[in-house]
Amino acid sequence: MAYSRMIGLAALAPLALLAACGSPDKARQDDSGAMPDGEVTPTEGSIAAVDPQTFANRIAASDQFEIESAKIAQSKAKSKALRDFAAKMVTDHTASSAKLKAAATTQGLTVDASPDAQHRTDLAALRAATADDFDSLYKEQQMRAHEAALAELNAYADSGTQDALRDFAQATATVVDGHLSMLRGIDVPARNAAATGTAPSTPAAPPPAAPVDKTPAQ
Question: What's the Cα-to-Cα distance from 208 to each of 133, 205, 211, 212, 214, rounded to whole Å?
Fold first, then answer.
């Protein structure tokens, strides 16, 4: 009888071992689903997608800012290279706006191009800028605005959930990156005395001292 019980226990041992091990991933998880050393089991939808409406509105507002600021630059910029750049901004961002609206429409979205607070502040600064300061201010704003737009486009191209908008983001990111390359190649004077195109003034030399009369007094 004892011998039969020993045989039965020996037969069950491999099954118990298999149950304890389970699958490789299960053995490595704790009750929360966390893996050792901070690993987490990937789950569907764990990467948050950019909201399509928010993306469309931000890019529409960015395009509108580019167009409005470029029109100011066409009349105020001293640099011909900047005026040419501004003309291209009007053309390219007008085209971008049309493509964005078309892509959004296929997804049932209505685009809102209302400028945000930063855009309004930047446009006011451009209108108020002096002739000597305008070129450098416009270039600074354009670098910042294009870098922000490129980051937004790349983020949606990577994780966007709407095919038409994702295709738009991928194509437009290349255009915006080209704009940044153009900007980096444009030299403008710094916002100081050099912006006037004249050398900084130097203090006038003191007048020569009057000759001393050494004739003996009579």
Answer: 39, 9, 9, 12, 18
Instruction: Tell me how crowded residue 63 is: count the other CB atoms within 10 A of its CB.
Output: 25
Radius of gyration from C-alpha coordinates of the chain: 34
The pair of structure tokens assigned to 138 is 């416009």
Residues in the chain: 218
Res. 59: pLDDT tops 60: yes
pLDDT higher for 209 or 184? 184
Amino acid sitting at position 38: G
Single-letter amino acid code for the residue at 15: L
pLDDT of amino acid 210: 54
- Dmax over Cα atoms in the chain, in whole Å? 155
Helix, strand, or coil (residue 138): helix
Query: In sequence order, which residues have a C-beta less than 8 Å from that of residue 168 and are 6 or more positions away?
Result: 99, 100, 103
Cα separation values, 117 from 51, 53, 55, 56, Å: 21, 19, 17, 17
Report the distance separating Cα 147 and Cα 180, nearest Å.
Answer: 8
> Residue 49: CA atoms inside 13 Å, Cβ hemisphere, count?
13
Average pLDDT, the chain: 77
**Cβ atoms within 10 Å of 77's Cβ, excluding its own:** 22
> What phi and psi, each to the nearest 5 degrees, are found at residue 20?
-70, -35
- Type of residue numbered 150: L
208 pLDDT band, cuts 50/70/90, is: low
**Reported pTM:** 0.65
Q: How far apart are CA 87 and CA 72, in angstroms?
A: 10
